[in-house]
Amino acid sequence: MNPKVIDRFLDRAKKWNDEMRLLRKICLDCGLAEDFKWMHPCYTFQGKNIVLIHGFKEYCALLFHKGALLGDVENILVQQTENVQAARQIRFTSKQQIIELERTIKAYIFEAMEVEKSGAEVKMKKTSEFDVPEELQEKFNEDPDFETAFKKLTPGRQRGYLLHFSGAKQSKTRESRIEKCIPKIFKGKGLNDR
Length: 194
Description:
Structural class: alpha+beta
Oligomer: single chain
């Protein structure tokens, strides 16, 4: 990995520049290899993803790819959304906060490396374990060909649609989302496929 790629990323990250640079130093101090994945600095151990640095409007974060398997003795890991199964974040709003937590951050990184060494995997929910919204089930009942097309999708594409449809609070919105996605589903495409 060419460190200049990360340097360019950090140079462009105006809001959390100092914080991200410090997180980078901490990751490298722990002996992680630096890479650039998903358009963010990613740190690996023996080719396996350990942490990712990313910034948001309100905070920057160190995302642990298998954070759900960490002990989290300090109770600082955050599950980004209820649908995130494996990853967990430590969120920061200042450089000082990172400085104060440096020892803890390193302990979490070393624990994540041990999790990776052990070969442990996060038990992911199967697609069949996700709830099918009532509106989608009604559409399946109305049009069995639509249900067949949906079930031919890969499990990941099915999950993407189920989460998208279920994410709407109102029934009317869920119905609208389903209607808009019907042509893509019949074409065998996922929610974000073109």
